[in-house]
Write a structure and sequence with these properties.
It is built from 5 helices and no strands. The chain has 76 residues and is mainly alpha-helical. It is flat, with a radius of gyration of 18 Å.
């Protein structure tokens, strides 16, 4: 199922107020009309430095963290 098809299924259940708040962008130029460059990372056309989340992701996926969420570590 494409995103457009999924959106068409979900859209009727949303309030008009919420529908007006959801905007899809097909380019950086349209995105920057709504979100300032100062709050976007460079990979999205912004001015914030690029960041690496791999260390955070490793910590978040640690077995003791997954247990708090009810998850189980994968057996390798």
């Amino acid at each position: 199922m494409t995103f457009k098809a999924a959106w068409m299924l979900i859209k009727p259940f949303l309030s008009d107020k919420l529908k007006k708040r959801i905007i899809f962008h097909n380019s950086i130029d349209t995105l920057l009309k709504y979100i300032p460059k100062s709050v976007l990372p460079v990979q999205y056309g912004g001015e914030l430095k690029s960041y690496d989340v791999s260390d955070w992701l490793k910590r978040a996926m640690a077995p003791e963290k997954l247990a708090l969420l009810g998850g189980r570590p994968r057996q390798t």
